[in-house]
Amino acid sequence: MNEIKINTEIIKLDAFLKWSGAACLGSEAKIYILDELVKVNGEICTQRGKKLKSGDIVEFNKEVYKIL
């Protein structure tokens, strides 16, 4: 599990994918989300503006990220 520290109280899902390095571009992150390739806390999430906070778990491309 990759633990990723964010500098704010919340972060949007598409921004998190860029911040964590899972996506290089925001447009790339958007495609992954809309193609239902990303899970948040065990459920597929298609909301690119989904607000994430400390403790949330994001799964993408066989990697698991925990937000700190």
From TrEMBL:
CDD domains: S4. Keywords: RNA-binding. This is RNA-binding S4 domain-containing protein. One of its GO terms (molecular function) is RNA binding. InterPro entries: S4_RNA-bd_sf. It holds the Pfam family S4_2.
